Amino acid sequence: AQSVTQPDIHITVSEGASLELRCNYSYGATPYLFWYVQSPGQGLQLLLKYFSGDTLVQGIKGFEAEFKRSQSSFNLRKPSVHWSDAAEYFCAVGAGGGATNKLIFGTGTLLAVQP
Amino acid sequence: GAVVSQHPSWVICKSGTSVKIECRSLDFQATTMFWYRQFPKQSLMLMATSNEGSKATYEQGVEKDKFLINHASLTLSTLTVTSAHPEDSSFYICSARRDRGGEQYFGPGTRLTVT
Asked: Nearest CA of chain B to the CA of A90: how many Å?
């Protein structure tokens, strides 16, 4: 069965420090992978996605993610975190026969940023 | 563009009553809308997928008679929780998609509390 695991429930980093949020997936075929950010009172916003091609994907707000098939991972990174990055981050895999027919989400990682 | 709204943002209802949640795509036509449920500290779980003018497709374990979904137009879908019980208290999120394979755009969610 398809699934997404985000091992870190809560992460705290200092402003300006680098960030890596972990995501592991279980999916039989080539996965469609997504990272979303959820801020209070706002809908989930797509940060980046991987469908095929270059395994290092650039997204909005300075985020990037790397698809590693051998590790079934799609970790999200940012070289320098800003206070406004504090939010909850969700990794998702697209299932159901199409990239966005059915999204299966991880449990999320809550990011806190210390001044 | 690609804004999705939900109304209400929060609602409290008494056990046994029904409550309707609206999901609107404000600046695009959505051929498909999705309804998710999010429990505290858990991931978003897809409840159902609805295409305009068609009956919704419910995920396994979701009671279709309890969670009525209507997608009457290309910009509006509604979720009605019938005969609500305290265990239905949750955060309900909708998303909308222009066309197959396109990105899902998420609404800000509706917090339902059943007393």
From this structure: 8
In this predicted structure, what is the pLDDT of residue A30?
78
A77 forms bridges with which residues in the sheet?
A: A20, A64
| Among the listed residues A51, A60, A7, A9, the one whose alpha carbon sits nearest the alpha carbon of residue B102 | A51
Q: Which residues of B touch A104 (CB under 8 A)?
A: 46
Distance CA B49, CA B37 (A): 12
Q: Which residues of B touch A9 (CB under 8 A)?
A: 41
The 10s digit of each residue's pLDDT in A58-72 is: 999 999 999 999 999
Residues A90, B4: C-beta atoms closer than 8 Å: no
Alpha-carbon gap: B106 to the closest alpha carbon of chain A (Å):
5
How many Cβ atoms are within 10 Å of B78's Cβ, its own excluded? 19
pLDDT at B60 over 80: yes
Q: Which of B110, B36, B31, B55 is nearest to A104 (CA)?
A: B36
Identify which of A46, A90, A99 has the shortest CB distance to residue B43: A90
Across the strands, what pairs with B7? B22
